[in-house]
Design a protein that fits this description.
Layout: E1 2-8, H1 13-16, H2 21-28, E2 29-30, E3 38-44, E4 50-54, E5 61-62, E6 78-84, E7 89-93, E8 96-100, E9 105-108, E10 115-119, E11 128-134, E12 142-144, E13 150-154, E14 163-169, E15 180-186, E16 197-199, E17 203-210, E18 218-224, E19 227-233, E20 237-241, E21 248-251, E22 256-263, E23 272-274
Parallel strand pairs: 1-3
Antiparallel strand pairs: 2-20, 3-4, 4-11, 5-10, 6-9, 6-11, 7-8, 7-10, 9-12, 13-14, 14-15, 15-22, 16-23, 17-20, 17-22, 18-19, 18-21
Family: Belongs to the KduI family.
Cofactor: Zn(2+)
Function: Catalyzes the isomerization of 5-dehydro-4-deoxy-D-glucuronate to 3-deoxy-D-glycero-2,5-hexodiulosonate.
Length: about 280
């Protein structure tokens, strides 16, 4: 097992207005996820969210700390959200195993010392997507299935955005310090994952796209409402969305995405919406 760690600093919206394609991708695209037998950790300076992954094939992948965290162990001052997008797997937390099937989640609270990721079948490995944020309080570890979460039915086929939002880690489902996570599944024929676009200045967000067929991509829109930018995103890639940025995407084929949020409050509906006519 090896560890890949990157450190990404925050950017000012006035600076981003001058970014070309390469620089946009450098600062906001996360394209190093889902490497076999590698713990991938991308530390962002937006609410200090870590975007990562663990794909255990030859053996367990251990959630180890890194020097940049200045912590004795990874979750000394952090909480963790895990969603499995691959084959069946197990997350062991201080010796207690939690079996996670496809699209199931696990919240791990501050203070857990030994976290290990294991695949049930190496030929069809689990693919664990990770989000981690600073935590001030220790909440209990909790396994969340698709049957446990809140489900929002949004959009319409007429506007190409009919979708189901599965709120896996959100207030009322599981107690967290600040981390929120969930899945958005588009219906056949729909391509827009969020429309109207919105921003929430009280929270940042990360979008992780998966389930795209070979050769297909999602055009992720970001930037200020009057200064939009776009990034083409491939399968198993993520985009970091600053609090000043809108976030919306349109795919060339079917896909699913995981949203993860961190910030000042737990109010999912605390957002400023911008109709398509207001975007530039």
């Amino acid at each position: 097992m090896s560890i890949v760690f990157t450190n990404r600093y925050a950017t000012h919206p006035d600076d981003v207005k001058h970014y070309d394609t390469d620089k946009l991708r450098q600062h906001f695209l996360v394209d190093n996820l889902m490497q076999p037998d590698v713990l991938v950790l991308n530390y962002t300076h937006y609410e200090r969210l870590i975007v990562g992954s663990a794909v255990p094939v030859k053996g367990a992948v251990v959630l180890e700390t890194v020097d940049a965290l200045k912590a004795e162990y990874f979750l000394e001052r952090r909480e963790l959200g895990v969603i499995n997008i691959g084959g069946a797997g197990v997350v062991e937390v201080d010796g207690t195993p939690y079996a996670l099937n496809f699209r199931e989640a696990l919240y791990v609270g501050k203070g857990a010392r030994d976290v290990r990721f294991v695949s049930t079948d190496a030929a069809n490995p689990a693919k664990f997507y990770l989000n981690s944020t600073p935590a001030h309080h220790q909440y209990p570890t909790r396994h969340i299935t698709m049957a446990d979460c809140n489900v929002l039915n949004m959009g319409a086929l007429e506007t190409s955005n009919k979708r189901d939002i599965y709120q896996l880690m959100i207030k009322g489902v599981v107690d967290t310090c600040q981390l929120q996570m969930g899945l958005t599944v588009l219906h056949p024929g729909s391509v827009w994952n969020t429309m109207p676009a919105h921003q929430h200045d009280r929270r940042m967000e990360a979008y992780f796209y998966f389930g795209l067929s070979e050769g297909q991509q999602v055009c992720h829109f970001m930037g200020e409402p009057q200064q939009t930018r776009h990034i083409f995103v491939g399968n198993d890639q993520a985009v970091v969305s600053p609090p000043w940025s809108i976030h919306s995407g349109c795919g060339t084929g079917s896909y699913t995405f995981i949203w993860g949020m961190a910030g000042e409050n737990h109010d999912y509906n605390d957002m400023d919406k911008f109709p398509a006519s207001a975007l530039r």
